[in-house]
């Protein structure tokens, strides 16, 4: 099987048709942002969205005190039944 460039192996020096790789390929994929890169690839090469995994410390709020409803609580202290 031969690849796109006519080489058998992707490992430099093992392919009989190509003695050295082009400069763009020897640098590595993440070496620089190219104009031909898509917006997604440019963002990925630059490290992604800034602050994506960052969160601010949330302030702890106090729960509201329990307030019984007026219809269940008479407040008079009488134990009389209606």
Overview of the molecule:
The chain has 82 residues and is low in regular secondary structure. It has a domain at 1-51. Helices cover 13% and strands 0% of the residues. It contains two helices and no strands. The longest helix is centred in the middle third of the chain and has 7 residues, at 39-45.
Structure summary:
With 82 residues, this protein is largely without helices or strands. It is built from two helices and no strands.
List the quaternary state of the chains.
single chain
Q: Which spans have pLDDT < 50 for at least 5 consecutive residues?
A: none
Radius of gyration: 35 Å
Helix content: 10-25%
InterPro entries: DUF5524 (IPR040247)
Pfam family, one: DUF5524
Region (Disordered): 1-31
Biased composition (Polar residues): 7-20
What key attributes describe this structure?
82 residues; little secondary structure; rod-shaped
Which helices and strands occur, and which strands form pairs?
Elements (H helix, E strand, L loop, with lengths): L22 H4 L12 H7 L37
InterPro entries: DUF5524 (IPR040247)
